[in-house]
TrEMBL record:
Localization terms from the record: Membrane
One Gene Ontology cellular component: membrane
Major subcellular site: membrane
Keywords for the protein's UniProt record, in alphabetical order: Membrane, Transmembrane, Transmembrane helix
Name this protein carries in UniProt: Sterol desaturase family protein
GO biological process: lipid biosynthetic process
Pfam families the record matches: FA_hydroxylase (PF04116)
MF term (GO), any: iron ion binding
Sequence ranges assigned to domain Fatty acid hydroxylase in this UniProt record: 90-224
Sequence intervals crossing the membrane: 6-23, 43-67, 79-100
InterPro entries linked: Fatty_acid_hydroxylase (IPR006694), Sterol_Desaturase_Related (IPR050307)
Amino acid sequence: MLAQEPLIRLGAFLGVLTAMAVLEHAFPRRPQRLAWRRWPSNLGLVAVASVLLRVVAPAGAVGVALWAEAQGIGLFRWLGVPGWVAGPVSVVLLDLLIYFQHRVFHAVPALWRLHRVHHADPELDASSGLRFHPVEILLSLAIKAAAVMALGAPAEAVLVFEVLLNATSLFNHANLAVPAWLDRPLRLVLVTPDMHRVHHSEIRAEMDSDFGFCLSCWDRIFGTYVAAPAKGQLGMVIGVEGFRADPEQRLDRLLLQPLKD
């Protein structure tokens, strides 16, 4: 499986992105004004980040896991935890790490400037799940790499986690109308679009809630769960004041946005 890592990740990415784009068109949750016109810039951020990662850290988190395994590094190895236990536990703990990382990026002003690029999207759809500043992507990789080494997470588990993180980000940012009868049980396990959309409200108290990306339990456990926006899913305003104008959605503006007040 690891030998096919690039193909697995690319295949999952393209498959989920295509599926979400088709479903959003067929079953939209909210009307959109800009819609597809935002996609070139949002995808452009992914392209810039991918090039930067290829230069700075070509091996990625999976490569770090393989290196740690070769060196015999990591808590699970020191404790002799079998792979069938270490794998699933690693996926869950890495998801918990991303939850806390997300909270830190909201709480620390310098990090919020980077993360604000994601929140400044004036509309929400699958492409929003890719809209992260390249520097934030690099910092996130460094945090994940440190956790992977500390845990001694199996490389296969890290690959599964990376694929899940990417797929669920595309899903929970989608402008997709999930029926209430399905959303209610689904969000007991996974972060759904209606749940995560609250996090993109312009109201700060709602923005500082529902931090999870994959598993929804962390927000309930740590008291950051908000079931629905105060103004409703159709009445809520998405984005960050001062960054909703069409010119602000250009790729060059997004890359330079952290320098603005």
